[in-house]
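Supplementary Methods, section 5.1.

A reviewer requested that the exact input to the structure prediction be made available. We therefore reproduce it here, unchanged from the version used in the analyses.
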Amino acid sequence: MNDHGAGGERLTHFVSQEPFNPVIDAELTPEQERFYMASQWRLMWWKLRRHKLAVIAGGILLLLYLSALFAEVVSPYELSHRNRTHIFAPPQPIHLFDKGRFVGPFVYGFDRSVDPNDLRRVYTPNPEKVQPLRFFCSGGYRGADYEFWGLFDGDFHLFCPAEKSATVFLLGTDRLGRDMFSRIIYGARISLSVGLAGITLSFLLGIVIGGIAGYYGGWIDNVIQRFIEVLRSFPRLPLWMALSAAIPAKASPVAVYFAITLIIALLDWPGLARAVRSKLLALREEDFATAAELLGASPRRIIGRHLVPSFASHLIASATLAIPEMILAETALSFLGLGLRPPITSWGVLLQETLNIQAITITPWIMTPVIPVILTVLAFNFLGDGLRDAADPYK
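The structure derived from this sequence is encoded token-by-token as follows.
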């Protein structure tokens, strides 16, 4: 059939006369094929690796959690060990050279005296007391024995003082002569686990409640959204404090731990529930969700097996950003005396010592538990930013 223009002239068609061939002549290189055939998770991992700050933050968090897992091995002293001759002893910095000679990692021992003016203990490093550190050592000094996770006895440590009478206080000691470094390592086990346990419970509530609201919609969605708005209208910190104050004073340490974790999780899920709801409102109209429904899949299966996995990467990024908020919540409540209490040791419990301003002025090293709190929060935020960017690898 011929085509003609407005004036009747014939229009020329530039159409290839070659037969149609659906096969692509050019072959993909192995690198291109590896990229085009990669899964969503693999693409996320490749993009995350290019985010150097997120990778470094992930390495720091891995190191922190490993040290918390093996706290008895990493810390040179047992949690409750007291050195009565070194109360409020300052940190012992690590040296490598003594008088121009390489010795290896060592600390200088202290000469102790009492200031006659205010009766304050004075510790003076003695260059003649060179105390080399021992690595991968066991026993031989006070405070070395422990029960690993309360299961079996042990005395193996990553590093130890030189001998029975030697000391190694990398971050100083507290008012009872307990090693601050060891207590911070033990405290990491509680503070870091609160974040993981809290985010697990918060995610379960957020995904279930937000999934129901987003999938069904209608009056169910309206009821859930009004309940979330009422819950979020309360100031968070006063509500935390009120619920924490309701915990019985005679409750066991384990009961207090789970109660604080439950309180933090119950007040954190509404934000996640709204995010899940907004995603499901958009995804429930997609063809794959309609096909699953026509095939007879139950709403629980459609939500759990089809809709939620579609934005699982965004959920992981949200979880990474929510964990530091829970760690800060536990630290704040414990610092105010409304959270965890001794004999439980967490970073917030350790910071209770800083309530005395005079003690901070004389012994500033008791504020060192602030350092792992800041480091953990920053690491989680940087890792969360990297995961959030990697959640959409096609950008």
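The longest helix spans residues 180-216. These observations are discussed further in the main text.
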